[in-house]
Amino acid sequence: MASPTTSPAAERDPDQAQIHAAIARGLARREPQALEQLYGITSRPAFSIILSVVGDRGHAEDVQQQVYAEVWRRAGEFDPARGTLLSWVLTIARSRALDHRRRRTEQPLDDDTLAALGGGQEDRAYDDLLQRALVGEALAALPDQERDVLRLRFWAGLSQTEIADRTGVPLGTVKSRMTAGLRRLRDSMQDLEATP
Fold first, then answer.
1. Containing domain of residue 43, as a range?
2. Cα–Cα distances in Å, from 10 out to 17, 64, 116, 121, 179?
3. CA-to-CA distance for 34 and 28, rounded, in angstroms?
4. Tens-of-pLDDT digits for all 196 residues of the chain?
5. DSSP letters spanning the chain
6. Phi, psi of 158 (to 5 degrees)
7. Nearest-CA neighbor of 49 among 100, 91, 99, 103?
8. Residue 172: Cβ within 10 Å count
């Protein structure tokens, strides 16, 4: 069971769980170095989302400053039972970016413009980025041997036979590690997605 300061996936990686728990505690105590650590972990994906919504680098930089000011103000509101630090920051980033975009948009002239403000490509970009973050978190929680064969299969595009040849691990072992890794990954993703 996840502790009060970690997500289910972070709990499976003790180092990551300890780091995230320390950052969450530091934020709650209003420690500036905790915000610096959080920024180091989350600033790139947050900026990607902001830029995809706002569409202008200068405006995106302004919005990102607003995001981390809000994170600092709302630090005590972070609830690890509801998600990870990354998902919390990305949600705030997306909301502030949409707010900024709405403020900059004059009166919509047609239904297409209204639909674009309500969702669209930036929503898909946000969902894709959030999904990749969840998969990355779930992968990080896997045992090394299972994670390695899954990365070789799905990121490098190798077949199970090629993985066995490259790693020197028997083909049967590669298959069993892949099956176990996929099962754990599926269970981990279900845990992460079930988090309210």
1. 1-141
2. 5, 25, 35, 30, 22
3. 9
4. 344 444 444 445 567 778 888 898 998 898 889 999 999 989 999 999 999 888 888 899 999 999 999 999 888 888 877 888 888 899 899 989 988 888 775 444 455 554 555 555 556 666 666 666 777 777 777 888 988 888 888 777 888 899 999 999 999 999 999 899 888 888 877 766 555 4
5. ---TTS-HHHHHSHHHHHHHHHHHHHHHTT-HHHHHHHHHHHHHHHHHHHHHHH--HHHHHHHHHHHHHHHHHTGGG--TTT--HHHHHHHHHHHHHHHHHHHHS-S--SHHHHHHHHSSHHHHHHHHHHHHHHHHHHHHTS-HHHHHHHHHHHTS---HHHHHHHH---HHHHHHHHHHHHHHHHHHHHHHHH--
6. -85, 150
7. 91
8. 10
Regarding whether 31 and 124 lie in a shared domain, the answer is yes
The span from the CA of 160 to the CA of 111, in Å, is 50
Q: How many domains does the chain have?
A: 2
**Same domain as 109, residue 28:** yes
